[in-house]
Design brief:
Length: 167
């Protein structure tokens, strides 16, 4: 029985990763508008961090292979776990408003979180310049994350409830 549940979990994580990749690819043409933040919140709430974290690490790896290895590659391996952690800490207060605010805050803070890698690689001045240059993109990211979560959080949570998906 343990082998079956282990295989089921691996397959489930692979499917979640594929959904994340499809969601990312679907909005690639629109800079800093993405579904990954909301999906991370919903997946963490519904399936827990133990399923969501491996899927997001696989997602980060696939993105790195697809787009090429660069300084941003390192950031993807820590920025998404930060959102998982924030979601997990807020899980008992999570509703549409909390999800939209968390997703928005994360979008606004994304550039700052990514600048940490630049800070380590090139120092404070480079990281600060990189972060400031990206503020317009962070504004788009934060606003779009809010709207996406505001309109899609409850339908996604309801969909998972109706499908009775459990792992």
């Amino acid at each position: 029985m343990e082998v079956r549940s282990g295989i089921r979990k691996i397959v489930f994580i692979a499917v979640i990763t594929a959904v994340l990749e499809a969601a990312k690819f679907s909005l690639n043409a629109i800079a800093n508008v993405e579904l990954i933040s909301l999906l991370t919140i919903v997946l963490t709430l519904y399936f827990g961090w133990k399923c969501t974290l491996p899927a997001l690490l696989l997602f980060a790896g696939i993105e790195s292979i697809w787009w090429g290895i660069s300084i941003w590659t390192v950031t993807y391996f820590y920025v998404w776990p930060v959102l998982i952690l924030m979601t997990w800490l807020l899980r008992k207060q999570m509703n549409r408003v909390t999800a939209a605010c968390l997703s928005s805050f994360y979008g606004f803070a994304f550039g700052m979180l990514c600048a940490l890698t630049t800070f380590v690689a090139a120092g404070f001045n480079a990281a600060f310049a990189w972060w400031v240059a990206g503020i317009p993109y962070d504004l788009v990211h934060g606003i779009s994350n809010f709207l996406i979560a505001w309109f899609l959080f409850e339908p996604l949570m309801n969909m998972f409830e109706k499908l009775h998906l459990k792992i």
